[in-house]
Write a structure and sequence with these properties.
- By secondary structure, this protein is an alpha/beta fold.
- The chain has 10 helices and 13 strands.
- The structure holds adenosine-5'-diphosphate.
């Protein structure tokens, strides 16, 4: 089966500095792929290149087999894009924003009207359809962006930091929408610096297509780790013993939580120590010596 998204040795150089540095990756149809990394890692630049908004300095990118540089129009038909910046027009109503996008994509009536209504229903904005976008909350605007990105029936949805700046409840609601779309078979690539977001959305037990969802950890323009959450935890260790050393913590990974606990039990002095299951943030710290934020 052809990959939904393929990057081959992709570079993006700004001011002689590679901000995306030799990135190669293949995302399978139906996967939710989470690109995790701290601010400045190169995640947005990667999404911008994949979605034809900026050209790679070097390397090749294919979407459903189409070359993003040579066939941008065909690529744009395959993709829906939700960027960090609010791209909806706040001086238009919810419906007018959808209508404008539908016309841009030449979706004929009556299908256009029907599908606008369906997507607004899906993101629970039907009752706000005639309200100006400037009157919506941040979470509602983000839901409108998602509805709009889906209107031309893309095969792949790109979400760049979809829940940044949203309160926890709104974030959770968006996660349900994203997960629901994946359950219907949509391929999703999302970037985030929220560990819980990838842990929730890219949990391989929950893939819509039956294939495991994966996570890519990016730092300094490079993909420094790639795999499912389970694979990563298995590789680095599922149990963690934390030891307080002055004002910092030392982390020791153990293959299992039981082994971390057994080691803990053997310590004569347990003060300043704790055991817990490892998480993605621990793996990131282990890889880079820094926290995600
Ligand atoms: P992330 O999305 O992971 O936070 P970005 O892709 O936005 O990272 O940025 C990666 C690096 O590229 C940052 O150091 C940023 O300052 C730089 N960068 C992004 N866009 C530009 C640009 N248009 N010109 C120069 N530098 C840029």
């Amino acid at each position: 089966m052809a990959a939904a998204v393929t990057l081959q040795n992709v570079f993006k150089v700004y001011n002689n500095t590679p901000v995306v540095n030799d990135l190669s990756l293949a995302i399978q149809p139906g996967e939710i792929f989470g690109l995790l990394g701290p601010n400045g890692a190169g995640k947005s630049t990667t999404i911008r290149m994949i979605t034809t908004l900026t050209q790679p300095s070097q390397g090749q990118i294919f979407i459903e087999g189409f070359d993003v540089m040579k066939q941008p129009v065909l690529v744009k038909q395959q993709i829906g894009v939700v960027l960090q910046q609010m791209s909806v027009d706040v001086d238009l109503t919810v419906w007018e924003n959808m209508e404008f996008h539908g016309r841009m994509h030449h979706i004929p009536n009556p299908r256009r009207q029907r599908e606008i209504a369906e997507w607004l229903e899906y993101v629970e904005l039907s009752d706000r359809r005639d309200d100006y976008v400037k009157t919506l909350s941040g979470g509602m605007k983000r839901r409108l962006q998602i509805a709009r990105a889906l209107l031309h029936r893309p095969r792949i949805l790109f979400l760049d930091e979809p829940t940044v700046g949203l309160d926890p409840q709104t974030r959770r609601r968006l996660w349900e929408i994203i997960k629901g779309l994946n359950q219907q078979g949509m391929t999703i690539l999302l970037t985030t610096h929220y560990m819980e977001e990838v842990e929730y959305l890219c949990d391989s037990n929950f893939s819509g297509s039956g294939i495991p969802n994966r996570i890519g950890i990016m730092d300094g323009g490079k993909l420094i780790e790639l795999g499912t959450l389970q694979e990563m935890r298995h590789k680095y260790g599922e149990g963690l013993l934390m030891k307080q050393q002055g004002d910092r913590w030392d982390y020791h990974f153990f293959p299992t939580l039981a082994e971390a606990n057994a080691h803990f039990e053997q310590q004569p002095n347990k003060a300043g120590m704790m055991v817990r299951p490892s998480n993605l943030e621990d793996i990131f710290v282990e890889l880079t010596g820094r926290n995600l934020d």
